[in-house]
């Protein structure tokens, strides 16, 4: 009798063990199915992307101007990001294009600014304090941490900071193009100049914004309305791209075999993508400061050196051009220079040198 009970218990245990093993096998099988699906999806994406770019050059617009990458924040409320002395406004650069802009006043005006409207902020631009217009890079919007960081640095120094989202970026309407970005930048510059009175106006460009900045600096110079000075942060050298040369803003594709063939001149020229910092600096006579981290992973440091040498040669002066290099050990890469404790001093000294 006991043997039958033992055999029954053993049989039951074997059945349970068999069920458990079957469940484990099914779980492993299900997990492997999802892994295979993910690998197939990645391979499909890798294979099809180049052909899409080849067949539809306009897709390049969304790779260069990553305006579809957003930060989930209410851009009409800069105070949510700690910018308590900032007003949000919307300007119309041309018919059908509305631009989202933040205007941050100097930190010492924090209490005075509370409860004030747009008119007060506009009038404050003429208080004699330097005004910085900031043109950002090709991803996201004006709420990105490093852009808020730059506005805070400038405000702490007693300067105004005007930060724009180009057309198609953030809550600005329209679609970005090189000509469109130039139009937006020039419009904002003239808008600021009309209100700044005798306050000096500086342009600060980062990444893609360096090409925008140097470009309008040359245009304004040629029209007899030059900007007081320019700062280029994380700048690229590339002018019109040569055959076989990869576009800087597709850097994450460079490592893939044969991918450069598909980033053809047809794709690039379809969007008139020209990064003309080198050509612009050959013409520019505006005081210039170049900020660059030695560990910049998107714009290698040699680019900053080439731009510095180009500008110095064009201006025939070492006093009007400065190159400030940040050690790579800090890990600032392409976007982190605003965190450097020495940055405020560099900016202050540059502003003072321009005022002399």
Automatic annotation (TrEMBL):
Pfam families noted in UniProt: Abhydrolase_1
Cellular component aspect of the GO annotation: endoplasmic reticulum membrane
Cited InterPro entries: AB_hydrolase_1, AB_hydrolase_fold
The organism's taxonomic lineage, starting at the top: Eukaryota, Metazoa, Chordata, Craniata, Vertebrata
Official protein name in the record: AB hydrolase-1 domain-containing protein
Residue span(s) of domain AB hydrolase-1: 130-255
Gene Ontology molecular-function annotations: monoacylglycerol lipase activity; phosphatidylcholine lysophospholipase activity
Highest taxon in the source lineage: Eukaryota
Membrane-spanning parts: 38-56
GO biological process, alphabetically ordered: monoacylglycerol catabolic process; phosphatidylserine catabolic process
Coiled coil stretches, renumbered: none
Keywords, in A-Z order: Membrane, Transmembrane, Transmembrane helix
């Amino acid at each position: 009798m006991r043997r039958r009970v033992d055999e029954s218990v053993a049989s039951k245990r074997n059945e349970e063990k068999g069920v458990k093993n079957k469940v484990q096998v099914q779980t492993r099988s299900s997990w492997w199915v999802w892994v295979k699906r993910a690998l197939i999806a990645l391979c499909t994406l890798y294979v099809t992307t180049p052909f899409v770019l080849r067949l539809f050059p306009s897709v390049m617009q969304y790779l260069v101007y990553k305006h579809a990458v957003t930060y989930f924040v209410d851009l009409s409320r800069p105070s949510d990001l700690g910018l308590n002395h900032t007003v949000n406004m919307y300007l119309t650069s041309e018919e059908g294009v509305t631009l989202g802009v933040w205007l941050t006043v100097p930190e010492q005006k924090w209490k005075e600014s509370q409860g004030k409207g747009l008119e007060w902020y506009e009038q404050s631009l003429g208080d004699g304090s330097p005004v910085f217009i900031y043109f950002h890079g090709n991803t996201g919007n004006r709420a990105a941490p490093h852009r808020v960081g730059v506005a805070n640095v400038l405000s702490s120094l007693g300067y105004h900071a005007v930060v724009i989202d180009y057309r198609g970026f953030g809550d600005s309407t329209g679609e970005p193009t090189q000509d469109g970005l130039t139009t937006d930048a020039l419009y904002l510059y003239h808008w600021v100049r009309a209100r700044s009175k005798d306050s000096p106006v500086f342009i600060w460009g980062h990444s893609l914004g360096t090409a925008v900045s140097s470009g309008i600096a040359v245009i304004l110079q040629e029209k007899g309305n030059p900007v007081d000075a320019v700062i280029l942060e994380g700048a690229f050298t590339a002018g019109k791209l040569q055959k076989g040369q990869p576009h800087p803003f597709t850097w994450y594709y460079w490592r893939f075999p044969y991918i450069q063939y598909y980033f053809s001149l047809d794709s690039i020229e379809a969007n008139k993508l020209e990064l003309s910092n080198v050509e612009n600096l050959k013409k520019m006579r505006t005081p210039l400061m170049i900020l660059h981290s030695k560990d910049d992973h998107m714009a290698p440091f040699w680019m900053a050196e080439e731009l510095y040498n180009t500008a110095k040669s064009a201006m025939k002066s070492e006093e009007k051009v400065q190159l400030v290099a940040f050690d790579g050990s800090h890990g600032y890469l392409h976007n982190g220079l605003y965190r450097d404790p020495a940055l405020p001093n560099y900016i202050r000294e540059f502003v003072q040198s321009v005022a002399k």
